[in-house]
């Protein structure tokens, strides 16, 4: 449970894309943080260690992200059976804020000591540690898009939370919950798999999978329809910078015999691309042609294609669309 709903109108935020120099710095930070103890006696001790080892705002923010992602695991049991909302009474606004802070402090301590949390614990811990090392961070609550069924979903829901952190006078997007791993449907459990892609993420990718309750960013109103009706992208899409140019909607209307045109950036004709038919058999894409730094190809819609079509690069999902028969 996130105690205090924070509505942020992002008016003058700027974003700097991750470049090669930052990537190298991030790797250096990660290697140092990997040598840290898995347990510290207090958040203050961890913050002191980070302050000792790093001086720049970027490196401190990255060190917090990496330590949490390396050491705090997603508590799937709590996700399945969330605790009841904790209520309290108060007589003054000061008493109300004091009790909210006490509950939030308890959440942070539990997440830190047990090293298990859901998104509320991850974000509260990230914000807390940021403050201890002199960084400003906020918690953003909103919707997330992670399943095929989310494509074309009718309603937004507040089901996730993430952080923004101020680095060198620019707000950066952080989702340390997703940085630590993912849920594997085939195994029926959480898989610990550190990824750096949710630290200082390109907004184009971030907001394909996140929609803030405030509904705005960079001074522009985000479109709920674009979010809900957009294609579903995956971690490998972000890692490889595989921008999806066509179709421009995640919902494709077609009748049997129609050719659906796809365009993906930063993929070459020599890459192995395929999709699965209704029998879960791979169908290799063989008609691709180079186009503007990527490839373009057609898939003919027929009875062997199911309600969703997912494009794979090698063994990794890249993008999924929902197919609606005309």
Automatic annotation (TrEMBL):
This is Transglutaminase. PANTHER family: CYTOKINESIS PROTEIN 3. The lineage of its organism: Bacteria, Pseudomonadati, Bacteroidota, Flavobacteriia, Flavobacteriales. It comes from the Bacteria. Residues 111-178 form the Transglutaminase-like domain. It holds the Pfam family Transglut_core.
